[in-house]
Amino acid sequence: MTRFFKRLLIVFVLIGAPLFSATAAFTPKVPAGFKVSLYATSPNARQMALSPSGLLYVGSMAAGTVNVIENGKHRTLLEKLSHPSGIIWHKGDLYIAEISRLSVIRQIDDVVKKKQKPSLVALKTDLPSDYHHGWKYLAIGPDEKIYIPVGAPCNVCPAEDPYAALHRVTLDGKKMETVARGIRNTVGFSFHPVTKQLWFTEMGRDMMGDNIPPDEINILVEGGHYGFPYLHAKSVKDPYYFGQLPPNLKPIMPVAEIPAHSAPIGLRFTHNSQFAKDFPGCFFVALHGSWNRSKKVGYEVTVGCPDKANNVANFTPFMTGLFEGQTVHARPVDMLYLKDGSLLVSDDHGGKIWRVEKVK
To answer: Which SS3 state, helix, strand or coil, does residue 112 take?
Structure first.
């Protein structure tokens, strides 16, 4: 564990109880015409993966477990892993990303239904072991490859490959290539269902005050550079590193800026869901919430609707009421749709998965 994380752990031990206490009797708020209910519990719930058979797989961070939810109840499939936050189901197999390892469980649904002990097959074991921004998120692209990030091993610093970048890996784990750089930390992205472009969230640096720099939403341009550590969001020059910006480097600008420290994570488009008519061409973003801001920000699921140029000027809160005063009830992370088009939202703070659906 690095010195930074040891200090951070001390901070959370000292202030964590009053700042991040949960309330048992709690239900998020959603707009009129929708309703929210508790779908299941899963400790420290992070990224979710749904199989066609209806089994829901859930990763975690500090809990170190991968769980499965069947008939509304969860059970542990794997434990004592290193922050297995990134998981995805693809063609019968469950891919799991830890800090430094990408693995797979073959034919996972059969394993679950037969109540067998999962066999975790390592595909790639040479990812960086840094805990700082080391947790992962996974997506399968139209190219049948796994998209996986490696965050910067710092708050702000020059970061060479594979750090501060987004990569893609073949399904067998044998080949990894870098597709974009200058990305401080992304743990949420989604391919647009129509254009097939990859949209990803990015968390801005800390220690520049309450209001700068904004967090970001970007669209992937292969081979592009997104500014870190020189330039943050559209116009915030880093006080230490902007002067080192290479003269031939033109950072790609975000399509949306989100208030600083909101911590955008999951991103999910509304296409082919119960929300498509109410929010056509839009997307949900899970704002995990600030940990070091003097007044809390984030802690909600919000909606962004791009214009024809893909820019998003405003966001509309959708799932709210996740904190009151200094009491935090929930921290949303990932989102996905059930077969009926209702929305699941994972909460790693309360260890819950919420279901949002349209009132009939």
So the answer is: helix
